[in-house]
Design brief:
It is a single chain. The chain is an alpha+beta fold. It has a single domain, classed as Rhinovirus 14, subunit 4 (Irregular), CATH 4.10.80.400. The chain contains 2 helices and 3 strands, in the order E-E-E-H-H. It has a 3-stranded mixed β-sheet with strand order 2-1-3, with no helix packed on it. A hairpin with a 4-residue loop joins strand 1 and strand 2.
Length: 85
């Protein structure tokens, strides 16, 4: 077998969350930075929190509002066709 193919394993890897919480785990990296952890995740805390790092939700809401406004405008400007009996 080849020697030194596996990375070194650190038993004291410090995981730091954006909320400030820290955990110590075993990993091949000396430290990790995460955006969300069990102390601030909505599933574990029971609090409703919107996790949106890239503005996707705001972009979606703007697009939906624009579509609703355009649909309302076209509905108001187009006359209803009467069905001949």
């Amino acid at each position: 077998m080849k020697k030194d193919t596996h990375p070194t394993f650190n038993t004291a890897c410090v995981v730091t969350c954006s909320c400030g919480a820290t955990h110590t785990i075993g990993s091949t990296l000396p430290e990790l930075k995460v955006e969300i952890c069990s102390k601030c995740h909505p599933f574990y805390t029971g609090k409703s929190k919107l996790v949106d790092t890239e503005g996707r939700v705001d972009k979606f809401r703007r697009r939906q509002e624009a579509n609703a406004a355009a649909a309302a405008e076209t509905k108001a400007t187009t006359p209803k066709e009467e069905v001949a009996a």
